[in-house]
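Let us practice reading a record.
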Amino acid sequence: MTNQELEAKALEIRRGIITAVHSAASGHPGGSLSAADIMTYLYFKEMNINPSNPKDPDRDRFVLSKGHVAPALYSTLANRGYFPVDDLTTLRHTGSYLQGHPDMKHIPGVDMSSGSLGQGLSAAVGMALAGKLDNKDYRVYALLGDGESEEGQIWEAAMFAGFRKLDNLVVILDNNNLQIDGSIDEVCSPYPLDKKFEAFNFHVINIDGNNFEEIGAAFEEARNTKGMPTAIIARTIKGKGVSFMENNVGWHGKAPNDEEFEQAMAELGRA
């Protein structure tokens, strides 16, 4: 898939995010939109996966550590063929399998249930260690939030991954610089993130996480890195693609009304 095709697919995924959150009248559009390009690259270019066999023991694994951006994962999985795109309109509805956070027991393609911040990386590290112990070639990818990186468990897991030289693990940190209460450098700054991961024996790559050329180069570099895990610090724009949501902390966990929905979809359609 070319970068131009990936950009077109990311637009479809962003439209799915807005559709799902609007239909639910709740959810987290800001961080979902910022991570959409990374999710697109992972599922349409990087990862060894097969939607017709979602439990393939040799598949690559993905853990959404910041589970509240489930709309991004669901829209990506639907567009990749794991379940119907039309089901996105059932997000958070009573009886729907598309819950507010990912559920590995009921949603095809979800490798780990998540929601409580700080815990997903530990699960991903366990998967990567299991792959090493079982002499498997699969790779494990974990998407973290920058606000989430204020959690101590993130750094316990990072310490273990670096010590065990888990070079089949790639951590992607969605650094949109906003969390629910405001700018992360004002709430409880975890900066410098790259130096922290380096201190835990990670190979670190800093990129523009909304640029497919840089995303692709980073994952290729990660694949060629041996003897240590990789952390990709991806600078992104919260709410990316919808003008009134971009860099606006108010859209961390708020659904658009009908008028806002129409404007967002029109902008994404024009793009």
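A brief commentary: Residues 3-24 form the longest helix (22 residues).
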